[in-house]
Design a protein that fits this description.
about 30% helix; 5-stranded mixed sheet; single chain; two-stranded antiparallel sheet; alpha/beta
Length: about 150
Amino acid sequence: MTLRVGDIAPGFSGLDQDGHAVSLADFKGRGLVLYFYPKDFTPGCTAEACSLRDGQARLREAGYEVLGVSPDTVGKHKRFAEKHGLPFRLLADPEKMVAKAYGVWGRKKFMGHAYEGILRTTFLIDGKGIIRHIIGKVRTGDHADQVMETGG
């Protein structure tokens, strides 16, 4: 299934880095930057998270909350969020249920080696749960700026 702009965002639920339940319904009435990334503590993923952290005030001013999703565990998310002072929630998706629902779990290649993994993608979802923008070519180092350019 391929999601498109204008589609209703698939519902989801899971646990954040503090072990608290989080779902799409929690963001009703607010915009959501739902970003999928491969793995905590990797250079690109760290740059992306820190960009969103540093742009948090501008994103909130534009009406967005931020939620990161990766296959990492609650515990690993906790360490990652604490180390980098992330002010937003990270959803643990070790079974890849949310990633698959959003169509971002798929075939990747690195140095000639093919494998399954997260296709780094960001969805901008409005307060009614409608996908308003999809960013497939994420600029990790200035992702907050990219979000603002796209949907701010």
